[in-house]
From TrEMBL:
Tagged with keyword Ribonucleoprotein: yes
Gene of this entry: rpsI
Keyword NADP set for record: no
A cellular component annotation (GO) from this entry: cytosolic small ribosomal subunit
Organism listed in the record: Anaplasma phagocytophilum str. ApMUC09
Gene3D superfamilies xref list: 3.30.230.10
Similarity comment text for this entry: Belongs to the universal ribosomal protein uS9 family.
Pfam families: Ribosomal_S9
Name of the featured protein: Small ribosomal subunit protein uS9
Keywords: Ribonucleoprotein, Ribosomal protein
């Protein structure tokens, strides 16, 4: 797919694939307090997060599966190289942010994948964040022990 090549995304008007001069597609993902900047390009399937391999950075297999989920949904495992820079939050939020960024970049590289990714819920930002602690309570919802007398 070349820069500016038109692809139909299921609608009547053609959508242009957004790819830069280096053949990369860019996507920004976020989850909780984590923000990820993701660059995607056609390659052998190497995923680097903050300069480290995915498994080495996240450490847990479940988090790596979460990062690779957009590729499984799009049936394109091993087709793209990913370079991600992620900051803020914890490892779980960062994995979700990278997956969100990969989904957005996949949509830009191949607009025909948008309905599939949308159906899987990968293009929607998960807006759930930690509820704040209230004063006069132990935690966000845990109250102090009630004494009747």
């Amino acid at each position: 797919m070349l820069e500016g090549e038109e692809v139909s995304a299921g609608s009547s008007k053609p959508v242009k694939a957004r790819i830069d001069s280096l053949g990369r597609s860019y996507g920004t993902g976020s989850r909780k307090n984590a923000v990820a900047k993701v660059w995607l390009k056609v390659g052998s399937g190497v995923v680097t997060v903050n300069g480290m391999e995915c498994a080495a950075y996240f450490g847990r297999e479940a988090l790596c599966k979460r990062v690779f989920n957009p590729f499984h949904v799009a049936s394109s495992v091993g087709c793209y190289d990913v370079r991600a820079v992620v900051f803020g939050g914890g490892k779980s939020g960062q994995a979700g942010a990278v997956a969100h960024g990969i989904s957005k970049a996949l949509k830009d590289i191949n607009p025909s994948l948008q309905p599939v990714l949308r159906q899987a819920g990968l293009l929607t930002r998960d807006s759930r964040v930690v509820e704040r602690k209230k004063y006069g309570q132990h935690k966000a919802r845990k109250k102090c022990q009630f004494s009747k007398r």
